[in-house]
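Below sits our specimen:

——
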Amino acid sequence: MLVISLLVVVLDNTVLNVAMRTIADPQHGLGATQSQLEWAINSYTLVFAGLLFTAGILADRLGRRITLTVGLALFGIASLVSAYADSPGQLIWARALMGLGAAAVMPSTLSIIANVFDPRERGRAIGVWAGAVGLGVAIGPIVGGLLLEHFWWGSVFLINVPIVVAGLILVNVLIPESRDPRPGRIDIVGVLLSIVGLTLLTYGVIEGGDHGFGRIESWATLAAAVVVLGAFALYERRVEFPSLDVRLFSNRQFSASTGMIGLVFFAAMGVMFVSAFYLQLVRGYGPLASGALFVPFALAQMVFAPRSAAMVKRFGPKAVSTVGLLLVAAGLAGWIFITATTPIWVVGALFFLMGVGMANVMPPATEAIMSVLPREKAGVGSAVSNTIRQVGGALGVAALGAVVSSVYRDRIASATSGLPAAAKNAAGESISGAYGVAPHAGPAGQALIQHANDAFIAAMHGAAIGSAIFAVLGAVVAALWLPGKRPATASVPATPGSLAEEQGVQLVRVAE
């Protein structure tokens, strides 16, 4: 049931990508502009990432089942509104409400797992949870393609409603309520600082990816985010009942695990975003066919993520995570050699390799984070993990997207010199713009398409190099700071949360 709740949230975050061109169509969609389409995606990400941490705190305090229930209900209502939106503005606001619901669902699922499952089974359960994340990322484009081939664009949102209704019933029948028995006073200042800081950070990343990081709106927002989050860290060190005990980051297992999650999602999400344009434009695949090429990634997640706990038990988190990150790096580096004529099975193989690597990174990293905290603080641990994942992914899409845009503009400039001003701007901005201009460019249209493909592939290679470097950096973090294989007698804590308590004592000693 927790996997279903998680799956509908993650799936919807990817299913929209294949519907963008339809929503932009003034006859069959909403006639949304490029900027409006970007905000239809980014409004969700902005609210989702900004409120994840706060939702985790509220789940620990108010109850994880009730938080999950409210989150699912909000998500279902927002999906219904999105499906029947009659303007781009309505869709943007409905997507923001979906982000609010998703922020309540995501940390609640993981914190319930941490509380319901015995520590000996928790690693396997988290492996299944991580597999659901990968599955949602991969099957979203397939589901979107199938729906768009048979129904109108709103069906990609309407499909969520019956799933949410079933989820609400099953959650309240099958899942016990749990909360922190000693929550203390709520840290209102800390909560507000975290919301403002994370929102500024996410907005700055999105703005920089859309318009370049040299603009004052981008770097000033990011600078303000650093100041606010720095104030949050200083305040949390001094307050009696902190929302997040920042001393946890002095624990190398906690810091290394969160760093790994951020780095691997930075690397992978950027390339997966770029690959969608490669498949649909350069290779000419439709939404369904291009979505089907993500199946190997999903298959790898489904097969290997639930088995990662056994691998960690046998070889230790250091070895498993390091190898997993190197596999991700190898899969990303393979995109450097992809061309317009590369056999398509090679693309599927690279996605599979990336999926195997991710399946052996996320579960041990997430389990390491959750094991540092006692069970009653599981919501906070889940929120930290998911916030890092969201911000890392947003940074990856923005930063690597900026690389792609810069290289593409440089390479395409000579091919657009003879076009009218409006067509030149459109074709020079993105490969989608070039494909839109080409049918109206007469005999020069085919040559423009060829130049656009070549420019985009060169830009994609640059993004692949950058993403592979960040994945290797994650492997270095894992190799240096994650613990090795534990002795057999220490592999299972004697009591739930004893590892967290032991590490908590160490943190107190460090603080003292």
Observations:
- The two ends are 43 Å apart (CA to CA).
- The mean pLDDT is 79.
- Residues 444-481 form the longest helix (38 residues).
